[in-house]
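User: Hey, my collaborator sent me this sequence without any context and asked if I could get a structure. I don't really work with proteins. Can you help?
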Amino acid sequence: MTDDGTVVTLSGRLDVRVAADVRNALAAAVDGGVGELRVDLAALEAVDATGLGVLMGAHRRAQRAGRTLVLEDVPAPVGRLLLLTRLDKVLQTRRTERCV
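Assistant: No problem. I've predicted the 3D structure and written it out in structure-token form, which is a compact way to encode the shape of the chain:
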């Protein structure tokens, strides 16, 4: 996980084992900036229900702070999970040029 101020990059698995660390990193990123918060998921291998909860929590925190959380380059398996859970209607996603 890296954070350059505007982009937080997640890799590996977003599951119960790393949820607290990711939650804290996303909260710090939301609280420490302004405007759009981009979360790069291109290297994310999998996400479980706890991980989805972390993303939703970050989304709500961003909204309360007047910011927008954008999930970038969502891998197909994660995208399917967002679709199945209908979170694709709540969470904003975007493809960048590197993944087009």
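In plain terms: The mean pLDDT is 92. You can pass these tokens on to your collaborator as they are.
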